[in-house]
Write a structure and sequence with these properties.
Radius of gyration of chain B: 27 Å
Strand content of chain A: 15-25%
Order of helices and strands of chain B: HHHHHHHHHHHH
CATH superfamily of one domain in chain B: MetI-like
Distance between the termini of chain B: 69 Å
CATH class of one domain in chain B: Mainly Alpha
CATH architecture of one domain in chain B: Orthogonal Bundle
Largest sheet of chain B: none
Radius of gyration of chain A: 18 Å
Number of strands of chain B: 0
Helix content of chain B: over 70%
Largest sheet of chain A: 6 strands, mixed
Oligomer: heterodimer
Number of helices of chain A: 9
Helix content of chain A: 25-40%
Chain lengths: 248, 275
């Protein structure tokens, strides 16, 4: 039996007295693309951030490729090397060029030589369509370009799975497509992806599974055709109706 | 007279706010001009020039004013600045550390050294060899001056760095950690370089403050080859019983401090414009 790419067991998370996750059980298999949807405040970003321990679960266990990352003895830095993460606000390092952004962790964490890191960085920037922007600072790039550099930065570490935390939510509408098509390409290449998103079209077409969360619990979990196309729960229906028909 | 409703009769001349402002401004100009005339008319210009701007005394200041005094001022200031920069960054990191005793040490240090007059620190440094027999500040007089400026400057610089470190968004650390960097690595590679960039303007102001405080070296009781601008001016002034050398030293400070002040505010302006 091969290990799950991600396994969450009875995950609870409190922020002070506020319970954000109320017992999540979930698995992601290698090569799967799983989209997490749900209203804001439903805990979906927190769930994602628990996978690489940017948030520490209050209760429960997280396994990544069979390794329990919530075990205090585990080297979390080593685990994170294998988990790429893309943030809503891009979080590029503003004092470094696009190329340096993609090189720095390769050099400092993977101890790759400068030359090797640069080759890998250029390849990945090329792959996400910003090969011509290697020497630009993040401030000189559009949001869509920044987010693609951020994806390249994560990919350059050769991760075995990728987390996307609302990757297109901070983008101007006309730039969303560029980022989504990069993500689609990744999915086609067989990358394991856990994506928190509001892009229903993307979820429907690319995801193997869609998870609908509300109020800190998983309400529905299934193939897109079911969860988005034929939701069984009233809460899911209400949410989807609001998202797909914003003007009522 | 019977009460009448207070109405403004049309055509009646009333002072409009704008007109009142104009009159008030005219009065202020007149008062200023009168004061100026009084100063010009009644000041004893001859005596003032004799005591504060005597050219032949000013000439005596050259060339040592630049080759010794200004040079030493720069040595003390730059040395003290480097020490305060490094030590200040260390204090700021301790101040923001997860480890409580580090925070306490940093807070205590910062509060004491910001709360005491810099002069007192310099006076204490002169007593160090008494307190610790056999102890000598490395670098002699330079070392003492640099130590004094560094200790005082570090407390202020620590607060400057703290503001800078706190202004780096949390997402930066998160991005670095998600790439597998350790907490220390993330600080060194991602957070500190950004914090330093952000605090360049206030740090320039800190440099100017240190430059002025370098005059406190005067109280270390230094021999002539170690004098900086203030002591240099003061010594010459005593020698000639004339204040001109102090004026000359003052002008020399301004030649350095005013451009630096402009530089700081320009850097500050650019920081706002960027992004």
């Amino acid at each position: 039996m091969t290990a799950h790419a991600i396994e969450l067991r009875d995950l609870h998370k409190y922020f002070g007295g506020n319970q954000v996750l109320k017992g999540i059980d979930m698995t992601v298999e290698p090569g799967q693309v799983v989209c997490v949807i749900g209203p804001s405040g439903s805990g979906k970003s927190t769930l994602l951030r628990c996978v690489n321990l940017l948030e520490t679960p209050t209760v429960g266990k997280v396994f990544v490729e069979g390794v329990e990352v919530t075990d205090p003895d585990v080297d979390i830095d080593a685990v994170r090397r294998r988990i790429g993460m893309v943030f809503q606000q891009f979080n590029l390092f503003p004092h470094m060029t696009a190329l340096q952004n993609v090189m720095i962790a390769q050099q400092r964490v993977l101890k790759r030589s400068r030359k090797e890191a640069e080759v890998v960085a250029r390849d990945n920037l090329e792959k996400v369509g910003v090969g011509a922007k290697c020497d630009a600072l993040p401030g000189q790039l559009s949001g869509g370009q920044q987010q693609r550099v951020a994806i390249a930065r994560a990919l350059a570490m050769s991760p075995s799975l990728m987390l996307f935390d609302e990757p297109t939510s901070a983008l101007d509408p006309e730039l969303v497509g560029d980022v989504l098509s990069v993500m689609r390409k990744l999915a086609e290449e067989g990358m394991t992806m856990l994506v928190v998103t509001h892009e229903m079209g993307f979820a429907r077409e690319v995801a193997d599974r869609v998870v609908f969360m509300d109020g800190g619990v998983v309400v529905e979990d299934g193939v897109p055709a079911q969860v988005i196309g034929d939701p069984q729960q009233e809460r899911t229906r209400t949410f989807l109706h609001r998202v797909l028909h914003p003007e009522g | 007279m019977a009460d009448q409703p207070k109405t403004v009769e049309p055509g009646r001349v009333r002072l409009s706010p704008r007109k009142r402002q104009r009159i008030s401004r005219t009065v202020q100009y007149v008062v200023l001009a009168a004061a100026l005339v009084a100063v010009v008319r009644y000041a004893d210009w001859q005596s003032l020039a004799q005591n504060f701007a005597k050219l032949d005394v000013a000439e005596q200041a050259l060339p040592d004013l630049f080759t010794v005094a200004l040079r030493n001022t720069i040595v003390y200031t730059v040395g003290g600045f480097i020490l305060s920069f490094v030590f200040g960054l260390l204090l700021a990191l301790m101040r923001l550390s997860q480890i409580k005793p580090y925070r306490w040490i940093a807070i205590i240090y910062i509060e004491i050294f910001r709360g005491l007059p810099a002069l007192l620190i310099f006076l204490m440094i002169t007593f160090l060899p008494l307190a610790l027999p056999g102890f000598q500040v490395p670098g002699g007089t330079y070392g003492q001056g640099i130590l004094g400026l560094g200790l005082v400057g570090a407390a202020y610089q620590a607060e400057v760095f703290r503001a800078g470190l706190q202004a780096v968004p949390r997402g930066q650390t998160e991005a670095a950690r998600s790439l597998g960097m350790s907490a220390t690595r993330a600080q060194i590679t991602v957070v500190i370089p950004q914090a330093i960039r952000m605090v360049i303007p206030p740090t320039t102001n800190q440099f100017v403050a240190l430059l002025k405080d370098s005059s406190l070296v005067l109280f270390l009781g230094v021999s002539s080859e170690y004098v900086e601008l203030a002591k240099f001016g003061n010594d010459l002034a005593s020698q000639y019983a004339n204040a001109t050398p102090i004026m000359v030293a003052g002008v020399t400070y301004l030649i350095v401090t005013i451009p630096l002040g402009y530089l700081a505010s320009r850097l500050e302006g650019r920081k706002g414009g960027k992004r």
